Amino acid sequence: MDKFKFIDLFAGIGGFHQAMTNLGGECVFASEIDESAIKTYMNNYGIDSANDITKVKDEDIPAHDVLCAGFPCQAFSKAGKQLGFDDPTKGTLFFEIKRILLAKQPEYIVLENVRNLLSHDHHNTWSVIEEELDKAGYNIGVVVMSPHQLGIPQLRERVYILGIRKDVYDGKLVFDIPDRNDKSSLNAYEAGIFDSDVDEKYSISEQEEEVLTCWDEFYQGINLKVIGFPIWSSEFGATYPLDDYPDWKAEFCNKNRKLYEENKDFIDKWLKKWDNLSRFTPTNRKFEWQAGTSITSIWDGYIQFRPSGIRVKRPNAFPALVALVQIPVIGKYKRRLTPREAARLQSFPETFVPDENDFQAYKQFGNAVNVNCVEYLSKQLLQYGHLKDDE
Ligand SMILES: C[S@@+](CC[C@H](N)C(=O)[O-])C[C@H]1O[C@@H](n2cnc3c(N)ncnc32)[C@H](O)[C@@H]1O
After folding, report:
1. Residues 195, 338 contacting (CB under 8 angstroms)
2. Which one of 4, 65, 151, 333 has the fewest beta carbons within 10 angstroms of its own beta carbon?
3. 22, 33, 41, 114: residue to mutate for ligand 1 pocket, most atoms within 8 A of CB
4. Is the minimum distance from the CB of 366 to ligand 1 under 6 angstroms?
5. Are 231 and 256 in contact (CB under 8 A)?
6. Of 321, 313, 310, residue with least CA distance to 365
7. Per the confidence metrics, is the pTM higher than 0.85?
8. pLDDT at 184
9. Does 27 participate in catalysis according to the annotation?
10. Taking 80 as the threshold, does the pLDDT of residue 130 lie above it?
11. Are 138 and 131 in contact (CB under 8 A)?
């Protein structure tokens, strides 16, 4: 494949950069406004990405073959259209992409966003994007894909918009994608994600261990193994009226009350042993078992300390890493995922140097695009234009 040039908009720490470089690309421009992401980008690629794309003039963006962007999802004003403005995207970050496409006419585009982009604002956001890319002269294919489809143990569905200039190829863009429903072969413990020797600072605290031990006892003791509702311990034995609650909430309360009645002997003893959970924070008094019957103990699952309670998931794949809080706990190891392990879940190479501040590193990996997904789809996209593999 020929060497090609790409630009990396909303660059973050360069998930696109990694994928495009692997495919033989050279980054000729990157744009980012977050200071710590800019530092990480410089540290890893030697490229200064510090600029606000809304302030960059067309002529300051070098010519390129591929435009990459994991752009923030924003609603477009419907009022604009009704009032007869000709550009409903104006003032949004998508507008910057469109502006650069019109000015630079790259052959290919690779965009990524949350899956919700397709349904956001009653599908208005998506129909505007589709129409505007079409008007800008691009033929697009849309793929929803998650790293677990490539054997990477992370469930992270994202929408990928893959496009090519219509004068280059105007037929249907078809992408070969592995089955989304097949999660059977996934096992994070066997996927080479976890390190065996990890700094003590990632261990869960004594208090967290106590909370999880308590809830594990609860799960072992009750008669229900598939729990389809959140456990709210405050409802055990409660009788106050639920008339003022919305239906969904009253239903959850009733299910908790019924569970209590059916397991009264055990739950009473359990509550007594754990001082009515009085030592726990209110969020730690709530529990969500989302692992079906695939595991039989909390310590075999992945755990998240969420505002809505403690959530346990099956160990086949991590829930999507998201920016900031709620770093998943690996039950088996009684510790949190490390930044290096987060890098692996996002398919960044071992040579990648994460931000030295863990908080920033988690945030950056949580915001990033999965490298292997981009590479897998872009490789197929390139075949439709002049960058196709030599026969
Ligand atoms: C979802 S993240 C993209 C992450 C990236 N794809 C990666 O792999 O790391 C969106 C990024 O857009 C950046 N951003 C937001 N507004 C921007 C602007 N006006 N100019 C440049 N970057 C911007 C944010 O700081 C954020 O890092």
Report:
1. yes
2. 151
3. 33
4. no
5. yes
6. 321
7. yes
8. 63
9. no
10. yes
11. no
